[in-house]
Amino acid sequence: MGWKKLILGEKMPDKNDPGYAERYEKEVSAGRKWARLLKIDKVAGYAQCFACRHPKVFLTLVFGIVIGCLTLNICRMVQIYNRPQTGQTVTATQHQEELLRQKRNKQIIKTKSNDPERTYKQD
User: Fold this and answer.
1) 64, 103, 110, 120: least CB-packed within 10 angstroms?
2) Please, what's the b/e burial string for 69-86 (b: 16 or more CB within 10 A of its CB; e: otherwise)?
3) Where is this region: Disordered (predicted)?
C-alpha cells in the first residue's frame, strides 16, 4: 500500500463491478469466520436477545456507561485545569525523559539475592 493510497484512500468502486462484489464477499466471509472463531457472534446474539427482552435496562446500561465516561473525562479536565501553575511548563516528553534519567542514575546496591531486578535501589 502506497502513501498516496493510504492518505487519499481508494477510488469508490461501482456497485455492479464483479471484482468489487467478489472482494466484498471474500472480506465478509473472512470477518464471519473470525467472529465464529472468537465467539463474537454468540456474544452479540446474547446481547441482542437481552436488549429485545429488557429494552429499558439495556438502554440504561448503555447510556449509563456513556454518561460515566463523559463524567470521568470532564472530572479529569477539571483536575488538570485546576492544577497549580508552576513557573515552568513541562511537556509530557520532557517529564518522561526526566523519569528515565532518574531511573538510569540509581545507585546499585549489592545484595545476596540472585534476582537481577532487585539489585537496584527501590523507592
Assistant:
1) 110
2) eeeeeeeeeeeeeeeeee
3) 101-123
d(CA 65, CA 109): 48
Q: Which residue has the higher pLDDT, 109 or 34?
A: 34
Grid coordinates given for 11: 477510488
Which pLDDT score, from 0 to 100, does residue 8 have?
78
pTM of the full predicted structure?
Answer: 0.49
Query: Which grid coordinates are listed for 106?
Result: 540509581
Cell 429494552 belongs to residue: 55
Residue 11: Cβ within 10 Å count: 7
Residue 123 has pLDDT above 60, yes or no: no
